[in-house]
Every structure is written in structure tokens, then in C-alpha cells.
Amino acid sequence: MAEAEERETGSLEESTDESEEEESEEEPKLKYERLSNGVTEILQKDAASCMTVHDKFLALGTHYGKVYLLDVQGNITQKFDVSCVKINQISLDESGEHMGVCSEDGKVQVFGLYSGEEFHETFDCPIKIIAVHPHFLRSSCKQFVTGGKKLLLFERSWMSRWKSSVLHEGEGNIRSVKWRGHLIAWANNMGVKIFDVTSKQRITNVPRDDVSLRPDMYPCSLCWKDSVTLIVGWGTSVKICSVKERHAGEMRDLPSRYVEIGKRKSSRCGSAVTNLTSIREEVVHENSTSHACPARNTAITPGPVGSLVRAAAVSPGSCSGLLPGVPLPTAPSWTWAPLQSEHTSDGVTTFRPCPGAQGGVSQFETEFYISGLAPLWDQLVVLSYVKEVSEKTESEYCARPRLDIIQPLSETCEEISSDALTVRGFQENECRDYHLEHSEGESLFYIVSPRDVVVAKERDQDDHIDWLLEKKKYEEALMAAEISQKNIKRHKILDIGLAYINHLVEKGEYDAAARKCQKILGKNAALWEYEVYKFKEIGQLKAISPYLPRGDPVLKPLIYEMTLHEFLESDYEGFATLIREWPGDLYNNSVIVQAVRGHLKKDSQNRTLLKTLAELYTYDKNYSSALEIYLTLRHKDAFQLIHKHNLFSSIKDKIVLLMDFDSEKAVDMLLDNEDKISIKKVVEELEDRPELQHVYLHKLFRRDHRKGQRYHEKQISLYAEYDRPNLLPFLRDSIHCPLEKALEICQQRNFVEETVYLLSRMGNSRSALKMITQELQDVDKAIEFAKEQDDGELWEDLILYSIDKPPFITGLLNNIGTHVDPILLIHRIKEGMEIPNLRDSLVKILQDYNLQILLREGCKKILVADSLSLLKKMHRTQMKGVLVDEENICESCLSPVLPSDAAKPFSVVVFHCRHMFHKECLPVPSMSSPAQFCNICSAKHRGPGSAILEMKK
């Protein structure tokens, strides 16, 4: 048997390989694995006929009448020999403590798995179904139903005796039953019924749509989504039925509940879509007559055409290697059909398709036969039996069963996923051989076939990441792992990240791979070093260099040195950038210095290498060497280096280099640090460069005229040679330069303005004026000079010199009026001499004279007005009274000026200086000085005070 199975599996894999198409990019929603261990042993000798699932264990029935209790891994925990023929169904209550079993030979057993409670009965016909009450553990719920040719309800009375009642018969074998809460749903050859255990009423009848299908070959699949929603799958039809409470006003003789079949529109692969409506099933009590209450249908309106939804094939890896998915041969479509209500003879409303109806909908149709249904949250899981036609032989064959997930929406039903499953022996299986069981607690789905049991599970985050990695979607996988870090069990963010880096490297995206290292490797120094060596092996150290850690963590110095050597061999600019950006303590500085020196031997003038070497010297605190390079390169950082590290002692012999580089910055620095480099030292160093010496001394003089006074004599020649515009200001401001030396230099160089200034400063104003008039021939400057000197003899010399020179006369006439009487000049002008602009000059003289007269008169008026105002103010002040009381004393005798006896006569003199005297204490006025004065103020030379008040009594 094992050999046959191996041959079967081999041929199955070959057929799978032949039929595989390009794998889908859609991620599967479920993952699959075979239930092995004990199940494998059982199915090697027997065949599975049915199965039921509890959250804690599984119960498997076989064709040889055995019932096995299994754990979730498929290991056998218990075995029951119930019959010698096929077990048709197993039922468990919600507690998992009671089990019901029925078999093909009519045997029914209900017993406690952990108690001695037991029920045995053998019927004279095969029992196809059994269902125990979900709360069978309770004493008030000791009920179960069995079904063969009729549906029987067994109940245990208060005396522990079992009694049975017929719920339904006469419509063929009952082949499916589901019990949820107080509702029992079952299917026979004619349709589906629902019975309310509480009210003891049958509340609906949903007829079978396709009567051409044999009910024993294509049995009905029932599934309770919740306590009020029943999903019915039969043939190719699926209906969703909702049990609802009837309003009190509608009760009459009707059951308290009714069923409404909601219609959804859906499309798959372009199928038509119709509007959503609903049909409410109106049912009457079974005891009422058939014409008691007609059913009411809602209006049905045709809807729009639906859009294309997805029909996906499972990727080969979606079955965990055991169940390779295969592409679906054709895309199934769903169609919709309206229902009409019809009353049966027993008073229960049934529903049948409306002939020729095109509008409203109550069910959808698939192209495949339904073998099982199960809910998945708000979705629906459908197990389908597929038959296909061979292209070669044109004969039908059994294809792999499908497991679809369908999402009901407000306007459509969308197919979420569709997987074709490779189960053992699927070529020989029929629709009735497949069963779909589910565990609500863990969303597990068991696909049961005679030779195989497959478990479908919802894919978790680990599975999602597996799929992303398989599709090489590393970025998404990394993001998913980070978001669900607490939920993933098999994957680690670091492992995914490393795989991502390797993937990018393999693709040649080195920059992207290096960038990801920063995020993925984090502070793991060992992994950083490993990745750096890997990048070195492929010659891409440059790519990872910008992202190497520089603080926390710090890698081995060899890593950084290796990277720097890589740049030094091929990219000087990149090398310089790393030296600037990386802290000097990351690598062995001396090693890199030696390497740079070696390259400078080949290219000694390379500015990039020289500058970098200076930076390395700076890191190594070899500031003098760094400064020398900076000065050679004339680099702006030289001054910053000197200031920062106080290198003034190192630049005493490099002052010329500094001045050549940037004389302004150098002078400012030298003057700011006179205490570190003396003026004398600077002047000595610049002795051979007088132009630089002048720059230094000039700025020194501008800062402080006295500090460099010993060099003022030297500065005369320096100004004369390099900066004549500033010579005259220097001569004017300096009081320490020797005038004779300065005059000699200026006369040698024929500096007229400077010579004029020096002559005037030395007291030889006439010689200075002579130079202005004779050398410069500038009457305005001569007049200006005469005004500055304000010497009458000088004006006389100027007039004498100008008397025969008309331009000079014009200049004097225009400017002399304010200093010299113009009449003196006019009388000396020779008759007949032609003088330019004489009239204008005379008019100006008259105007200046009138202006002087007006100014004098104005000043006189102002003086008179001010004098009068002050006189009046003084008079008002002197007319004011002065307070005299007992506290005032005589400044002469120092006794109170007022007598203690008010009746006694007294005489007091009070001066404007506020000093007070008894009259008899003052000197007697004489003929030469009749006025009286304050003795105190007169003695202090403050000016005599005059009496302002004499008080007598």
C-alpha cells in the first residue's frame, strides 16, 4: 500500500508540474498542512468518512466503523469500535464531554467521554445524521436528533427515560443536520428546513434548486455563521438565510420567527451584477390551512453590470510544501436568481426560482459543486468539488478541490482568495467524499477526504513575512516585522534586514545596501565589521564609508584605516572629506600620516593632500607642522589655528609668511597680541620687507599714536615711499616725528603740501605762503593758509604778491572780506588793470559787508533783549521776601537774629546771599564805601553781597 501511495504521489507531482502556470503575485490568505502522525497510520489501512472538530480535540470516523479521538497534531488519544461499517456522522456538544455517533448499519450511540452516561439504539435503516444539543451537558438540554428516512428528536424525561418524536418525514433520506442554540437545520431530498426547539415550530422550507443532481452524490452543506444566520450550499448554489423575530402585530397564527434570505450582488470575471433586495419568507403555522397567509415579495429591480473581481491561483509554496497549489483551469463565475414563495400543503412557505426572472436576487451560483461551508469572521470559506474536461480525450475527470474565501460586501461579493488543493486520491473522489469542518476558536479549517486530512490556517505575520521574503520584497518584509515586532515568533528583524542587505548587494545596489546598514545593524559592532569586510571583498568600501558609525558604537581602528586607505589610493577629495568628518580618535593617526607622506613623495604639490596632512597634524597636536603647511598653502585656517592653540611663539619667525598671506588679518592678530609678540620683534622681522613694515606701523599708529613713537622717524620715509596720501595726516597727528627730518624728506621728494605744512608748523609761514603762491599757483589754498594763520603780515605779503596778478586779485576780492578790509586791496589795484569778474567780486564784497552789518545789528538786539530780560528777572528776585525766624542766627555774633523778647526793638540786615546780621554787628559805612557788604562772602572772595532787606522794630 505504501508503494502504491508513493507511485500516486510521484504521478501527482508530475501532473502538478505540467499544469503549473506563472505563479501569482497575490499573497495567499491561508496556509495548508497535512494532518499527520496517527492520521497517516489510520488512513493507510482505512478511509475517513466523517469528522467533527472541537477546540480541544478532533473526532475522526472511518469506513470500517472506527471513531478516533485525536489531538490537534493528529496523534491518537482514544479509539472506539462503534460498528463494522461506515460511520456516517459524529457530533460533539460545546463542552466536548459528550459525543453522538451514527453508522450505516443503523446504530446510534450517545455517550459521555468522561462519564458513564450512555445511550444505544439500533434502527432498521441506515442513520445518516446525528446532532446532540450544543449544551447537552446541562440536565435540561438532554436532547439529540437522528436522521435516516425521518428526523427524530430524542429527549430525556425527568425520570431519565428517553422519548422520541418525529420532526419530519416523507421527503427522502435526511443527509445533513446542524444544531445551533435553539434552532435545528436539516436537509433532505427536497430542501432545507429549520426547526425551533423552544417553540416546537418549523419556521421555514428552502427547496432544492437543481433537482437534476442526485442528493446522495451531491449532498447539501449547512453552516451556522452565528445563532441566527444559516448558510446553505447545495450543488452550485449558495444561500444566506437570516432568522428574525416577527413583530407582535404580525403574529396571528404564525410562528414567532421567520427567515429572510438576503441577496447580494457579486461579479467574478465579468459576470453580470444585479441590485440588492431581500425576500422575506412568510410562513404559517403547520396546523393552519394552506391558504391562510400569502407570502409578500419586495420589488426587484435590475442593477448595473459589475466590475472584474480577482480570481487568483495559489502559489506553489502556499501549501507548506505538502500541498502545492495549481493554477485554476477556468475562472468560475457567480450568477444570481430571484425566488418566489409558494405554500405547501402542510402550511409551510417554500421558495422556488421565479421562471424567466431577470431582476432581484436571493442566491449566487458557482461553476463548481459545493462540498462544505464555514465562516471566517465576516467572510465565507467554500470547499468546492471540481470536474474538468480533458482537452485531449474530451472526457470529464476529477480535478483538485478548491478552497475559496468570499467577502460579502454591501453591493457585491468579492473573491478574496482561491486555492486548488492537492489531496491524496482526489482523482477518485466524489463530491460527497469531501467535508469541511472548522474550529471557531482558532480559525482552523479541516478538509476531509477518504485518503487525506488537510488543515488550513489563517496566515499570521510570520507567514506574511515568509511570502514577502520569497517574493524578494525585503523592504515590505522589514516594515511588516517592525510593525508586528511583538507578534512575530519565527522571524527576527535583524535577520530580515541582513537578508535585505545581501539582496541589495547581489543586485549591485551598493549605495542602497550601505544606507540600510545604518538602520539595520544599529549598534552591533561585530555585524558592522562583518559587513565592512564583505564590502571590501567586492571593492565597495567607498559605498559604505558615509554610513560607518562614528560614536556609538565605535569599530576597530583597522576598519576606519582600511577605508581611508581605499580612498587614498583612488580618491584624494573623498579621503580629505572623511578626514574632516571623522573624529581623529577613530583611527591610528600616525599610520594615516605616514601613508599621506608616502603619496606626497609622488605628488609633493598636491594641495588636497597637503591640507589633509595639516588636519592630521592638528589631530595629532603637531600644530607647528600644521601651521607651516597652512601658511605655505595660504590657507585661511592658519589664523584660526594660531588663535585656538595659542601658537604665537611658533610664528615669531613666520611673520613675513603671515603678512604675505593676508596682511590685514596678520596685522590685526599681531596688534591684538602685543603681549605675546612685541612691536619691536615684528618691526625687526619686517626689516627686509619695508612695505609690510609700513602696513604694520601704519595700523599701529592709527590704533595708538604713542605706542610706536620710536618708529615715527622711520615712518616718515615709509609713508613717503608707500603711502603718500597718509603722510600729511601722519605729520599732523604725530608729535614725536622730527620736523627737520620730515622737511628734508619732503623737500627732496618735492612734496609741496607736506613742505608747506612743515614750514608753517616750524614758524616759517612766509616761506610756506611763498611755496603755495609760487610752486602751486593756487590762490584759494594761499587764502586758506592765510586764514588758518590769521596773521596780518601774512595777508600783507599775499596782497603784495597778488597785486599784479588779476586771477589772484579776483580770488582775494571774493574771500578777503571777512578777514581784511577790502579797501586796502582795492586802493592798491593799478588803474587800467583788467580783472576778471571784477563787478561780481565787488558785489560780493558789498553783500558780505551788508551781511556783517545785519549780523552785528541782530546780535546787538539779541544782547539788549537778553540783558533787559535778565535785569527784570533779577529785580523780581530781589523784591521777594526772605523768611526770618528764631532759628536764624547772626553770622557775626552767632546769636539769634530775633530777640527772645518780642517787645524789645531790633534791627536785622539780610543779604541776597541769605546771610543775616544784626545791624550793629556790621561795620559802619564810610564816605568812600557807603554801601554795606556781606562780610563772609567778601572774605571768601565770592563777591560782596548787597543788602536786600533791613528789618527794624
TrEMBL record:
Chain intervals for the UniProt region annotation (Disordered): 1-33
Cellular-component GO terms for this entry: clathrin-coated vesicle; cytosol; early endosome membrane; Golgi apparatus; HOPS complex; late endosome membrane; lysosomal membrane
Domain RING-type, chain residue ranges per copy: 890-938
Family: Belongs to the VPS41 family.
Places the protein is found: Cytoplasm, Cytosol; Early endosome membrane; Endosome membrane; Late endosome membrane
Highest taxon above the source species: Eukaryota
Pfam families tied to this protein: Beta-prop_Vps41, TPR_Vps41, zf-RING_Vps41
Major location (coarse): cytoplasm
UniProt CHCR repeat ranges: 667-811
GO BP terms: autophagy; endosomal vesicle fusion; protein targeting to vacuole
Name under which the protein is recorded: Vacuolar protein sorting-associated protein 41 homolog
Functional note: Plays a role in vesicle-mediated protein trafficking to lysosomal compartments including the endocytic membrane transport pathways.
MF terms in GO: zinc ion binding
UniProt-listed InterPro entries: Beta-prop_Vps41, Clathrin_H-chain/VPS_repeat, TPR-like_helical_dom_sf, Vps41, Vps41/Vps8, WD40/YVTN_repeat-like_dom_sf, WD40_repeat_dom_sf, Znf_RING
CDD domains: RING-H2_Vps41
Keywords tagged on the record: Autophagy, Cytoplasm, Cytoplasmic vesicle, Endosome, Golgi apparatus, Lysosome, Membrane, Metal-binding, Protein transport, Transport, Zinc, Zinc-finger
Biased amino acid composition, Acidic residues: 14-26
Membrane topology designation: Peripheral membrane protein
